[in-house]
Amino acid sequence: MKRIILFFAVVIVSAGIVHFFLPNDEKEIRGNLVSLAEYGSSPANEAMLDSLKKAALAVKLCKTPFSVTYKARGIEREFNEKELTDRILMVKKRGGGTRFVFEDIRIEINGKKSAAIIATLRLEGHLEDGAFTDAYETNLTAIKIEGDWFFSSFEMVEFLEK
Amino acid sequence: MKNFLLPKLNRKYLVRVFLVAFFAWLVFGYLLLPLRIQGRSMEPTYRDGSFAFCWRLQYLFTEPRRYDVVAVRFAGRKVMLLKRIVALPGETVAFRNGVLQVNGSPLAEPYLRYPSDWELEEREVKEGYVYIIGDNRATAMQGHRFGQVRISRIVGGVLP
Questions:
Q1: Helices A81-94 and A25-40 sit at what angle, rounded to 10 degrees?
Q2: Given a cut of 70, is residue B56 above it in pLDDT?
Q3: What is the pLDDT of residue B152?
Q4: B78 contacts A160? CB cut-off 8 A
Q5: How confident is the model at residue A60 (pLDDT cuts 50, 70, 90)?
């Protein structure tokens, strides 16, 4: 009896270790999302050179032309590499001291080469009158090119209708 | 006292620990979700940094009602919007001189403490939707997240 329990314990622990350490598509996409949020975040008084570096790194995670949909701001089009870099730099400049985090991430791999991602983008930062926080539901898509995953579109989901 | 602080690690004790952990996971992970309030849109009812719970079974047998404070999901249940239901499906909503009008009449809102200057044209709440707003209307209307939302997005009621 003890041997059976020990056997099952070893099997469960081994499966857990394999699941935890073995790389897979979902883990790579999650890692890219964490990096994207980090590169999009801007510490207060971030040096221009650091902003440029981070924007370039964020763009490297994306496949251009990159589709952006944010209807509340009238954006619904594809961005080339330069436009995307400029847009990220603009967001970083306007949102100095803002931290981005993706939460509640759900990833659905379609076939082997594309994925749909639903996540909550949380913003945290400080304004003159104190701390602020905000959140948005986002839809992203990703495609796999030569073994690596790249984001191909980003959409802000607006579920509240004034 | 000694047994309470340093219990014997026997089978009965381990079963008790397992049951307590299981029920805590079940209750606080799925039924009564702990909430940490961030932001000022529900002040003074819920202050920035305060705690509350989301009771997920609140609308299991009943429909959402006016004045209920509800948690509305984004992509999941980790980050949610906390707002108050002010209008139900089929009703009309408008703001005139900062006063909320439902079906053309001012709505009694005893929970409001701050003055407001919001103006909003009348609109009808669609079937399957409710109209939600925060209690703090002292902020600029453009910066406040409110509007009609699908009832299916409501995760539960907020306690206390």
A1: 60
A2: yes
A3: 95
A4: no
A5: very high
Interface of A with B in 1-20 (CB under 8 A): none
Q: Give the helix/strand (H/E) hosting A140.
A: strand A130-145
Nearest to A120 among B78, B129, B153 (CB): B78
Lowest mean pLDDT among A42-51, A81-90, A120-129, B69-78: A120-129
Which residues contact residue B135 at a Cβ distance below 8 angstroms, ignoring those fewer than 6 apart? B41, B42, B43, B44, B45, B46, B84, B111, B112, B113
Instruction: Report the complex ipTM.
Output: 0.82
Strand partners, A157: A137
Distances (CA, A) of B112 to A24, A88, B30, B67, B160: 51, 39, 31, 12, 17
Give the C-alpha separation, A136 to A118, whole Å: 11
At residue A1 the predicted structure's pLDDT band, cuts being 50, 70 and 90, is: low
Nearest to residue B83, comparing CAs of B118, B131, B125, B31? Answer: B131
- pTM of the model as a whole: 0.85
Nearest to B55 by CA among B157, B133, B160, B153: B157
Question: Is the Cβ–Cβ distance between A132 and A122 less than 8 Å?
Answer: no
Residue-by-residue DSSP string for A67-134: EEEEGGGTEEEEE-HHHHHHHHHHHHHHTTT-EEEEEEEEEEEETTTEEEEEEEEEEEEEETTEEEEE
| pLDDT band, very low/low/confident/very high, at B11 (cuts 50, 70, 90) | confident
Structure tokens at B57: 């079974």
Nearest-neighbour CA in chain B from A101: distance (Å): 11
